[in-house]
Amino acid sequence: MSFATVAHSYNPDAPFILGDDGRDFTHGAFWALAGRLAQALAQAGARPGDRIAVQVEKSVEAVALFYACLRGGFVFLPLNTAYTASEIDYFLSDAEPGIFITAPGKPQARVAKQLTLDDKGGGTLMELLAGCDGAVADAPSSADTLCAILYTSGTTGKSKGAMLSQGNLLSNAEALMQEWRFASADTLIHALPVYHTHGLFVAMNTLFLVGGKMLFRRKFDAADVLRLMPQATVLMGVPTFYTRLLQQEGLTREACKTMRLFVSGSAPLLAETHRDFEARTGHAILERYGMTETNMNTSNPYEGKRKPGTVGFALPGIAVRVREGMIEVKGPNVTRGYWRNEEKTKASFTGDGFFITGDLGYFDDEGYVVINGRGSDLIITGGFNVYPKEIEEKIDAMPGVVESAVIGLPHADFGEAVTAVVVPRKGAALDGAAMIAELRVSLAAFKVPKSIHFVEELPRNTMGKVQKKVLRERFG
Ligand code: AMP
User: Which residue, by CA, sits nearest to atom 21 of ligand 1?
Assistant: First the structure.
């Protein structure tokens, strides 16, 4: 199976992307757009195997560029729009792309060839496209064909480019299609960014594979998503989508009448959000777990109990195990390694071929995987390991607390001092000393935070991940 054979297997007249700019694309029109883009890239000098770096606002063309790379035999390299000039410098020197596509008005000296694309279908790439008829032969491909490099968010040290093959992506889309019961009648609300695995691969490829359609929004807006729901069947989101939706009065059972599935991932969903959402809508959010390097690994069941605070079971064809507290995975979904980084690649695999995720976790008594946070967030204080999640859960359960993040700060005696950063509910008067005293009752002394800081909100990146690095810098 290849993306090309999938594209030719269903009705080309079936709608695929309904844009929020009034432009709609059938599956046939989308695949043709990808063909014309492939031709335009080749005319601009791209050769098979060339990396095509793309840092643009979300648009249909931006996602079609991934499929264009597949068709032309190029390697798609999307970059977060938030990256600054010096970060971009690093990616360009590491990846050496043949072409760099940016928003208009951002000249780049470092690349041989630059093209522009805006979110309304304008720019030099689109001028080139006007002269392309799409009459191109698809580049030969196999499961091993490298089709994308996605740089990891790099919470520790420099970002690394995860190399993803056609087989990695298609096998995962197929597993998700089966597990989440996708069919051509599905309509997905797509409000995620498209430079990240979640919006780009999990959402796009699954709907592509089944011949379903998407309501494509350039930005997430809770009121807008609520308005769209009566025309949709599925929402894929990060936890913030759900906390924002819960703030909408209109979020009711009635509003979700046509919806069959709400999926959450990319960051931990608070158990409280899970429960509140179910109480309001009757829908238990399905939480899953994955990462740039591996695509999706585990999922709560479609049928059966979706357990708050867990990420469910291994997807079909994927092996998940826990060794020394660390989650490891193996399967057709897993990257072959990091771009031009033999050393990091070697260090990321066990002798028997499992990928070391860097996530701490365990199987609960019913076999559901529970994530304890990143290994790099583990706190070592006075020689003891402290798992932040255990303490965060206790703090979150206290009255007047919205959420918390527990971090380790450098400390002369202990190495690291356990420190809590807490978001109080509006109007709640919390007393740090009293909270510490209460934690002492149920936690070993070494786990109890030495101090508590109060903030209005936790710093999060666009995928909803709490940026503990930022907190460590701010309070360190
Ligand atoms: P990324 O490569 O940006 O997709 O980030 C992957 C990381 O996000 C994983 O290694 C986990 O640490 C975290 N993550 C993804 N999904 C979940 C989830 N459902 N619960 C907790 N952490 C998650």
Answer: 268
